[in-house]
């Protein structure tokens, strides 16, 4: 018999797991990792182009044209080997693995309200382990990302001063900070999964299961 068990801690962990997976996915797909110098002083821009803002993502880019109030975005790399540097290629691999694991956990977290075990293992412990592993992949990706700032693509956007771990005339965009925040939240979710496990297996929950209730809500 399926018992739907909902507690404050398990529900909070579920919501956090979904949010962190979504945040990392949005950050990865965004072109707002690096924000180029808006005055275009390091480029051969015309006067009308100097107010345009260019942003660069891991595999895509955007140009915000101030006069037309238009944003043009698209991938600069048509295949994996055209990504700006080998470091960014490694970043893509690590982030994709991390996001995939977080997405799996996000799906499992929804079903955790009804199924509390996988192959006789606690679903919360399994998900917490997957979140910890995902967090390690995300850290590796984020550590390698700044090493690619010396690539020709970044130099074109950020000037000749750009080099590994030195952003030059650019500034870091919200996507980079979102990825960092999501990584921190990933480890918090991994630790909080233990609390979700405790909340759904305490004596009060077991008493209600023995009473034959199929929907169990515990604060």
Automatic annotation (TrEMBL):
Which residue ranges run through the membrane? 12-35, 87-111, 123-145, 174-194
Main localization category: membrane
Q: Report the GO terms under cellular component.
A: membrane
Q: What is the protein's membrane topology class?
A: Multi-pass membrane protein
Is Ribosomal protein given among the entry's keywords?
A: no
Signal peptide positions are 1-23
Protein name (Swiss-Prot/TrEMBL): Lipoma HMGIC fusion partner-like 2 protein
This protein's species is Phoxinus phoxinus (Eurasian minnow)
User: Lineage of the source organism?
Assistant: Eukaryota, Metazoa, Chordata, Craniata, Vertebrata
